[in-house]
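Quick start: what a row looks like.
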Amino acid sequence: MNFKLIKASSAYKNAIKNLMQFYMYDFSEYLKTDVEEDGLFATYKYLDDYWQEESNSFPYIIISNEKYVGFVLVKFIESTKRSYFSVAEFFIMKKYRREGIGKAVAHQVFDLYKGRWEVFQKESNKPAQLFWNRVISEYTKGCFEERFVNDKRIQNFEN
């Protein structure tokens, strides 16, 4: 398993924007979305936020053998009630799934940001639920909480 997790400078923004189309395609069966008139999915409206100064958003690109494999978008969400890190979006291209890259990337991202985490999946996205339950359970040695809110399954843990 040969990959690099790279904090994505603005030079990678277009690559992530393009990979987002494949992500949206994969996700379309869970969100029941369609492509627009131009044959593309709508642009991810929060993508520009990841390159704003003073942003609490952290973009990463995943590369293996000089090829793009996927991306991870992490956010730090702060409120008066609670603050936590969240995996906003996580994508591994199908060709590279089941090789352990996703799990290794998730663990690496968790290690980069210490504190409280919330990871959520749509209730309809069973494959993502299985993946995140397995990854988080292994990472935390089973010390995490899970709850269901508004059609989302949410795992909480602290590292």
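That is the whole record. The chain has a mean pLDDT of 94. Helices lie at 13-31, 101-112, 126-140.
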